[in-house]
Amino acid sequence: MEFITDQSAGYLVNHLARLFARQLQDRIKPLGLTTGTFPALLVLWEGDGLTQRELIDRLDIEQPTLANTLARMERDGLVIRKKDAVDARAQRIWLTDQARALRAPAIAAAMQVNSEALAGLTEAERDQFLALMRRIIAGMQKDALDEVEDRQETG
């Protein structure tokens, strides 16, 4: 069986993601941001004060990855971590004023990348492309959750 990259959904999505990331990085680097911290900022801009566990769940990443990301964000003055008032084992993540001030220019940069990347598609094609990606993501997340539940039942 031959593997043909331009017929592989996984390969194409990965390649597309790298292109998006490169374009986004070029635009947010002058703001002092990276593509590594951007997803966490997007979630925190929707509402900060989340626990690390909540961020992990929303970002769908591993705990060590988030721990490293938060350490960099704290070092760069974007977040502060405070002990949870109810559960002393948990820490809540709070945006700094510096991070809040970066929201509008960072989101504008991301929107520009999206706009330029999808410029060759009609509005209907853009809507369909986004809908299909959301459906694939939902299916893959469900499959991953089912696998975890199966392991817990048999383990």
From TrEMBL:
One Pfam family linked to the record: MarR_2
All copies of domain HTH marR-type, residue ranges: 6-138
Record GO terms (molecular function): DNA binding; DNA-binding transcription factor activity
InterPro entries the UniProt entry points to: HTH_MarR-typ, WH-like_DNA-bd_sf, WH_DNA-bd_sf
Keywords assigned: DNA-binding, Transcription, Transcription regulation
Leader sequence residues: none
Listed name of the protein: DNA-binding MarR family transcriptional regulator
Species annotation: Thiobaca trueperi
